[in-house]
Design goal:
Helix content: under 10%
Order of helices and strands: EEHEEEE
Oligomer: single chain
Number of strands: 6
Structural class: mainly beta
Strand order of the largest sheet: 2-1-6
């Protein structure tokens, strides 16, 4: 599965010199299985601060913690995170003479 996102750097309105990044999942992302797609529609799974899917790891009185995932929790397929603005690297074979 390839999760395509767009990274946007935004100036922090509360500070003159600071900025933060916002990662937005693109709608044309093709999900690996229907279960994961339906799960993402029902729950907030995309983490806009990290640019990855996440699941709730721990719940406590102060809130909850989220753990990033690299594999689909339903079918186990690897999730490749790709920035829309960064071209993919092409792997080239080394030729020995």
């Amino acid at each position: 599965m390839k999760a395509i996102y767009e990274k946007e750097t935004i100036k922090d309105p509360e500070s003159e010199n600071d900025s933060y990044s916002n990662f937005t999942l693109k709608r044309d992302t093709v999900f690996c299985c229907e279960q994961f797609k339906m799960y993402c529609k029902k729950f907030t799974v995309w983490n806009y601060k990290q640019g990855k899917f996440g699941i709730v790891d721990q719940i406590n009185y102060d809130g909850h913690s989220v753990r990033s995932i690299d594999f689909c929790p339903f079918c186990g397929e690897k999730i490749d995170y790709l920035d829309e603005n960064t071209p993919e690297k092409v792997k080239r074979k080394k030729v020995r003479i």
